[in-house]
Design goal:
Layout: H1 8-19, E1 25-31, E2 36-44, E3 50-51, E4 54-57, H2 62-83, E5 88-95, H3 104-116, E6 121-122, H4 131-137, H5 158-177, E7 186-190, H6 194-205, E8 209-213, H7 217-229, E9 234-236, E10 249-252, H8 261-266, E11 271-272, H9 284-291, E12 295-296, H10 299-302, H11 305-313, H12 319-343, H13 347-363
Helix pairs in contact: 2-13, 3-4, 5-6, 5-11, 5-12, 6-7, 11-12, 12-13
Bound molecules: nicotinamide-adenine-dinucleotide.
Length: 381
């Protein structure tokens, strides 16, 4: 060990092992013929095989890519535990420009690397990749989820994600006001994309008042027309104004890191419940929200509907079961709020504690996932 620190190359390996300390396995994938450079990180298979999407981004350095895949795969372990699906946390990143560097062969090569993990890792679309890309990967491995129904997948996962956000808002309203009614309250929605638009539609249908923002004016126009047809109206505001409007609930459905020193100072809402990943810039921002009396619905619990749907594919897809499990987001959130209140901790801390307890309890029975310990439900492999 001592000698390693004196050899430059070996010192790097030591640093890498420190970096991946919490992770079970990290695989660097290199395929010269297609130009594939990817990293697969398996954080934990204590609850079952690792599950997580694959991002494609033009990372500036391999370190940036590694940092991202380690952080995201860890987050997936918590998200799986919170949603009570029998999967662990994993994630993959492909280093490349999604506009210029994609090819069917590249995704087939990626599929081969996934297959080499022998059922320890299941993946699908994430930022920069689409379900169609994974149709190519599917030719090489069964460990792909979230493709279109025509290819045996479960289709658009933003539908259950949006539904989960609605259940999350209802639970949050219940905790704050003793009633989970959506109407009679106002909501400020940031981002009217796949998830945000559907959430906005459901809130409008419930008779709620909406402030909305999106950098894409077409999204606002569409929603505005929809509202008009329903005899309702929305208030469209500038991107930076969404933090200052006097709504009851802030519903972030666009970017991460939007709960930070500046925005929390400006917020005039009673709660935050939305789909965006990694909403808190830092964990301490959960304390800042709490000090300001704003109830924060931990993002990875609220936005788990899509994960629930892709995980369900591996049990042989069943839409009723997905709905039932997505509905459970309501009760999970209420338990988290109750525990946070009881212990005097933030809701983010309570959510992490809740997930760690689940992982710990299961790990006493499972060590880690291997192919021959494959559960009966893994029907596709
Ligand atoms: P999307 O790309 O379809 O929509 C994002 C929307 O936000 C777009 O309309 C975009 O124009 C808008 N936007 C971007 N920057 C903005 C800004 N500064 N101000 C206002 N609007 C802005 O993405 P999506 O699938 O709807 O996902 C939304 C969020 O939810 C993301 O953070 C995503 O990671 C998270 N999420 C999505 C799913 C899912 O099933 N799609 C699941 C879990 C989490």
């Amino acid at each position: 060990m001592k000698a390693l620190s004196t050899i430059e190359g070996e010192k790097i390996s030591m640093d890498i092992f420190q970096k991946i300390n919490e992770h079970e396995q990290v695989v660097f994938c290199n395929d010269e013929s297609t130009g594939l450079k990817a990293i697969i990180a398996i954080h934990s298979t204590k609850l079952g095989p690792a599950l997580g999407g694959c991002r494609m981004l033009p990372y500036k350095t391999v370190d940036d890519a590694l940092e991202d895949v380690l952080r995201l795969s860890r987050g997936m372990s918590y998200k799986c535990a919170a949603s009570d699906v029998d999967f662990g946390g994993g994630k993959a990143v492909i280093i490349g420009d999604p506009v210029k560097d994609k090819s069917p062969e590249l995704f087939r090569a990626f599929g081969q690397f996934v297959d080499s993990l022998n059922g320890r890792f299941y993946t699908g679309t994430d930022m920069g990749t689409s379900p169609d890309d994974f149709v190519h990967a599917l030719k090489e491995t069964n460990c792909i989820v979230g493709v279109d129904e025509a290819y045996g997948g479960s289709g658009d996962s933003s539908i259950p994600t949006a539904l989960g956000v609605i259940y999350g808002i209802q639970a949050t309203n219940q905790a704050l006001w003793g009633s989970d009614q959506l109407d009679g309250r106002s909501y400020s929605i940031q981002g009217l994309g796949k998830v945000g638009y559907k959430v906005a539609e459901q809130l409008l249908e419930a008779g709620a008042d909406l402030y909305v923002t999106d950098i894409n004016p077409q999204a606002i126009e569409h929603l505005s027309e929809k509202a008009k047809k329903m005899g309702a109206a929305i208030k469209a505001v500038r991107s930076d104004e969404i933090y200052t409007v006097p709504a009851d609930v802030f519903v972030p459905c666009a970017l991460g890191g939007i709960l930070n020193d500046q925005t929390i100072e400006a917020l005039q809402v009673s709660s935050v419940a939305g789909s965006a990943n990694n909403q808190l810039l830092e964990m301490r921002h959960g304390q800042m929200l709490q000090a300001k009396g704003i109830l924060y619905a931990p993002d990875y619990i609220v936005n788990a509907g899509g994960l629930i749907q892709v995980a369900d594919e591996l049990y042989s897809p069943n839409k009723d079961r997905v709905l039932r499990k997505t509905k459970a987001i309501y009760d999970t959130l209420l338990s988290v709020y109750h525990y946070a209140d009881e212990q005097g901790i933030t809701t983010g801390e309570a959510a992490n504690y809740f997930c760690e307890k689940r992982m710990e309890a299961r790990s006493r029975r499972n060590s880690f996932f291997t192919h021959d310990k494959r559960p009966k439900w893994a029907v596709r492999n």
